[in-house]
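Journal club prep — side note

Before the paper discussion, L.F. wants everyone to see what a predicted structure for a comparable chain looks like in token form. Sequence:
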Amino acid sequence: MLLPRLGALRTGPLVSRRFVLLASGQTISALGSAMAPIALAFAVLKISHSPRDLGIVLAARSIAVVLFLLLGGAVSDRLPRHAVLVGSSLIAGLSQSAAALLLFTGSAHITALAALQLVNGASSAFTLPAANALVPQTVPEGTLRQANAVQRMGSNSARIIGAALGGVVVAAFGPGWGIAADAASFFVAAAMFATVRVTAAAVRKDSTLSQLAAGWREFWARTWLWVVVAQFAFINMASGAAFNVLGPLVASQRLGGAGAWGIIVAADTVGMLIGGLVAARRHDKRPLLAGNLALFLQLPQLALLALAAPVPLIAASSVLAGVGIEVFAVRWITTMHEQIPADMQSRMFAYDALGSFLFIPIGQTLAGPAQSALGTPGAIWAGTATIGAAVLVVCFVPQVRFLRARA
């Protein structure tokens, strides 16, 4: 049954050269970006051996994303979205090049790495809304769900390779090479985005502030939209602390180091790839409810990480977590594409990302103090409980339970 479905993809979104270029650029960028968190985590731990410092560096990037997201959404609804992608990718590549140079020369310190992650995060604040809103402009009508699945499957395939390669590269050659690979991927992606051509948006005479206000009214008018965004504010806060900060610490202290963490992260991405195949094949009449229920699959992964279970067992649970995340993500993005006017989509994706990322810096910053107060397992268990409660509550919201797919 799977092969005919994949054949249908070749006659659907993949017939569009513009979509292939867009998805290819994102896939190449994802390959390098999958190596960067592993390299950055072990670079910081090598410099200071402190989860607090790691939380600060990761939080710097997240803070920049939060600060610039709304501007990124407004700019992406005003300017050609492919041009926004080119500019943001070049800035991201330059920031990671500088970080790699500091690591190569042995002059890296926490303040400098945090400052460069601020720049990198600011560039991502423009990339996220532009890329998500550009997809409907590049594919034939009626292929959005498949296009979103294919786009994410390509990126997730790259993350599998990148995460595994990142662990090997960091263990064998040092973290600087992982950051350098990320920088190179941004430059290649920028060249590919430059070849994507879409119809230019109508010239807007209203101010950026007026655009943001109109976007807020559109956002607040959809209960299903702001409820799920609020849900992910807490999910991402808990995951940012429990998985992204304390996970590498568990791997370093009890699981064997960077190689083990690379396997766990790669397994998570394998699950996302499988989840993309499931999402491309399956049509749910109530997509948000189906996607939200799939998020419960994250919980075993964090529980086993808290227990410092054997790496193969954590990796298997990471596959399940990835499936759940990806099934939700494809349902969510497709619902936004279907339900929101095209000229508002960059702003809606910006509000979505802003709310979803809002508490991540808090979680990353508090990971160290929580670990000191509760111990590493206790802090991870607290994150697990937060995610479970957030998913359970949203399952009972009527506008989420009963919203139906248009296609």
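L.F.'s comment for the group: Residues 1-9 have pLDDT under 50 and may be disordered. Keep this in mind when we get to the figures.
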